């Protein structure tokens, strides 16, 4: 029965995957229909209001750059979705998987089509959340859960920085309308908020696109299913930061801060990512580090101003999307067929998996930048761009050559490791994966060769429109098959030689990198973990201190807050209030004061409960006498009654409680502190009352009540009329209070329901 | 037409009395409560529509003219608060049909909830400072009754802290009222708006305002006065905690919003700058406290504190956009927070506990609960296009616009830490496989539609609010205009005749 269930699931999953890959396929075809017009320089615009109060509109715009991204997203999406239909097998959550996958794809499409920066941000966060859900798709694994959370926090944090940047941009006079930026950049770049906007936008882009020092989440995100890694963490989502930088280029770019930051961060990320790619033995992790390298290269070239640098970025973006998606999908096939993606336990697979081997071969040669492949074209233009003078040519060229040489070596490792050499498992056990799984890599790899052969066409219909949409200018943008003998070609040769040497020394190099990475005193991932656990510890300590369960402490804090908050603005007046003694002292009042103070003293020092209650009664009686003294006999009566009843009730309850000596005694210091607080609070209130008493009283309400009590409300006693007529609504409330108090008391007296 | 203003207060009180009479027959009491809640919701919706049509309206109780009698006033802020209260009241009443035991019904659950609702609506509608105090007292006693209902030892410890600290708050409130009355000779808030400018002694006025602010800050659970909230919310039945989480501290926020615009706006700048600092600390401390908790309702309780901080920040900034942000945040927060507490009840039913290390596996087993949690949780964490994102966005934007950069950064950072907490619940309860040893683990739990319906309806509301934020934001902006320029309010109260 279980078996049939699984078969059923497998079939359902396959059907779901194949049907749902129609969505990206149709979108791809739809995008293609706009393509010729875009090449001719047209753009398409859709605009509908959404939240006009926040200047947010559903404004979508298709231009060259959006088109390029949309093609990558829908194209890769089609293959990934098709691939997943077989890869997932009979996973019980395949419905959720395809939902998340396509929801992600639509968010990503929205991101690259949005022409309103806030709208872009909405989709940006959408990609974050679906990436979170997909990284944690294998949710029963603790590592997957933790990695998902890490990526959510890192990219989510960057997202919030970006949000601040977006809002600051608006304040600095910028517009949310992205297509209006090329005209209005100067004002924003001159604004005093510019450095902060730049910082915030950079933080957003750097976290999303895994730039040093935020790169660590990307290799960990490899716990996602492999097709997801191919789609989100290689071809599309990690390029969202790059996309943002491209869009911001005309607005924020061109300043020394922009160039320096991007070139340095990108160059360093590229080299460091490429070096680290030599360390791991897991094919997916190797590829993840090469993705970091690629993202670094892209960032570095976006620092430039000239057409070659920016063309290099766009070209390499395509190169990378093609070969990296192919490689990831192929690695998934290897994992699926051979049961492992650890490079040391794989070998000789080319016989068993010839089609996958061809696809990987094409992809790796493009990655290594061999002539005839699209990667070669990308590398040539890269070196041309790196030689531009604003790019710190020495740094940029060194970084690019180093990173590319390492890439060549890694490409060789990825190609030769699993497919050549001696087979590690009997051939019969390993089969070529189903067509859904080799089709994607093969097509993507094939396009890599095709584009390498017709670079001029590619540059005319894809690269140029894309570059022009964020770098309008007269400069020529053209990729050519052969540039002639020049410095970039020389650098290409150097790169290939270095790469080959590195490949020959790979065992030593890999060991070296692995040791170095292990020996690093501090990594940023370690820092992240340290920060997180430090925050947790600190939070635990602070919360334990504050929310410590002691009511006494809570009240002390509250009273201190009152004294500080109310007393602080009032403190200047204190001397005025207390410095002014009355000319004559009323002896009756003085006697009452002494009586009440004495009673308080009894309450505070009493060792027996009954004595304390008696003292309390004394205080109440004293207050009642004060009312009497000021001519309010009815209030004094009420007060006396209440006091008497309170004393009786409280005594009855207290008789049943243990003696006061048994209760925990407080230390002298605590008692002094409490006493000080009580005194300060009392003084504060007294001074406030004296202050108010010395102000003239507005008697308009009283005179109205006096005038209308009898005539309009037909009552002789003003207090009663106020209670039952003028303010009878208050009385309604107070009656409810009394009833509720009785009710609560009954509940409390009743026996408990359960322990 | 202005007679309608009394409905939101009287309807639940009448329901409470009927439910009290029928409390020995729990099903009848439930029926009465359900009918009463539905009627209340309908009444509040009618009032809402009416006020949107005709503007600020006052009702002079007993036909005594203001400022001599007590009057009820409904402006945009009041009616939206009343409407949201009725919504939560209805949702909780439906949920309570399965969550609250017959024994708890017969010890008066529905009556207490009705009285609490009436009191909250009273606080939202009253135009009189002392009357506000009375409703605060009624709220305190009714919520105390709900807290001790069931009478477990842990409930009592929580309830004692709750009631003691809140009594301090009411004490400070009444003292402040005394001072303010002494200075101005009036209790009517519209009247106070004019009279407060005539007070000669600024220092005294500031002191009275600060006293009032501390009293409300205790109610709103602002830093460092929030102790009662995390001490008590996790001890009560789920339906009660959801209602408390949604409404109680928000009444404090409402009072701050009302008094510190209508009465103390121009005279006391120091109060607002203090409030801004307090708001920042509140936001921070709330998430810090939540980070350490391992029990679902405790985590959620601390998040209430942090989010109340956002609203307080909106009040402190005192620009139209900031106030609108505070109002949007209020609406969003009440729905989302009440819903999360309701979901916690489902989690407890399915997992037998709310202690994170001991539950898991909901992602695979309970798809509907997963959705019902995911939407409010990530709305709370502020992900677009859910309602929480817009609320956060508006407040941060308002802070940046008047150069409060630090507070804006704090607000953003707190958003990130909220994500951390929500991701914690998500990974532990939903993604993590169910621990092997589970006490009371039921293998196939079927959730009653009485429990699921309110949860899903509130989740849907969150999504719809997020997608159609414009009407709410427009409404909030108008409400903020009414608060900042209370001429309409004053005219409606003092200008008209009974």
Automatic annotation (TrEMBL), chain A:
Residues 670-751 form the MrpA C-terminal/MbhE domain. Residues 595-658 form the MrpA C-terminal/MbhD domain. Residues 114-399 form the NADH:quinone oxidoreductase/Mrp antiporter transmembrane domain. Residues 53-98 form the NADH-Ubiquinone oxidoreductase (complex I) chain 5 N-terminal domain. One of its GO terms (biological process) is monoatomic ion transport. Its main location: membrane. It is found in: Cell membrane; Membrane. GO terms for cellular component: plasma membrane. This is Multisubunit sodium/proton antiporter, MrpA subunit. It comes from Desulfofustis glycolicus DSM 9705.
From TrEMBL, chain B:
InterPro entries: CPA3_Na-H_Antiporter_D (IPR050586), NADH_UbQ_OxRdtase (IPR003918), ND/Mrp_TM (IPR001750). Coiled coil: none annotated. One of its GO terms (molecular function) is NADH dehydrogenase (ubiquinone) activity. Keywords: Cell membrane, Membrane, Transmembrane, Transmembrane helix. GO terms for biological process: ATP synthesis coupled electron transport. Residues 127-414 form the NADH:quinone oxidoreductase/Mrp antiporter transmembrane domain. It is a multi-pass membrane protein. Its main location: membrane. GO terms for cellular component: plasma membrane. It is found in: Cell membrane; Membrane. Belongs to the CPA3 antiporters (TC 2.A.63) subunit D family. This is Multisubunit sodium/proton antiporter, MrpD subunit.
